[in-house]
Specification:
By secondary structure, the chain is α/β, with parallel strands linked by helices. The protein contains five helices and five strands; from the N terminus they run αβαβαβαββα. The strands form two sheets. The chain has a three-stranded parallel sheet with strand order 3-4-5, sandwiched between helices. It has a two-stranded parallel ribbon with strand order 1-2.
Length: 131
């Protein structure tokens, strides 16, 4: 995942943000310890500390990524997740969702996503077709 985030982070047309049910300090600590925290700007994303309802998080993240007072467009938003809850929160906001089966859920449990990748390399290929 670090290589994929590095590649995406170099692109001018991609904006990376965290959307997670974790409280913000916990989420930021996790990504820092994983060596990928530098990809996620402060004051961006959405967290369990913003709202207990994960479905409310993508709109919060899109508002925080606003340009000229307009939330980041749904059509240009892709949630990447590894749980059914990640897929459900994307669907609740009407945004696309790619799933990666590297967490506790097998690909069969993630079928509601627009596409499912087995690993980061396959996810990179899916993203090439989306962004």
């Amino acid at each position: 995942m670090p290589d994929l985030l590095d590649a995406l982070g170099e692109r001018d047309d991609v904006f990376l943000a965290l959307v997670t049910g974790n409280y913000e300090p916990v989420a930021r600590l996790k990504v820092e310890r994983a060596g990928i925290g530098h990809h996620f700007a402060d004051e961006q994303g959405a967290f369990g500390s913003d709202n207990e309802d994960r479905a409310a998080l993508p709109p919060i993240a899109r508002r925080r990524a606003a340009v000229n007072g307009r939330p980041h467009p749904r059509a240009d938003t892709v949630v990447i997740g590894d749980t059914p809850a990640d897929i459900a929160c994307a669907r609740a906001d009407g945004v696309r969702c790619l799933a990666v089966a590297t967490g506790p859920y097998p690909g069969e449990d993630l079928r509601a996503a627009d596409a499912v990748a087995a690993d980061a390399a396959e996810l990179a290929g899916l993203l090439a077709n989306v962004v």
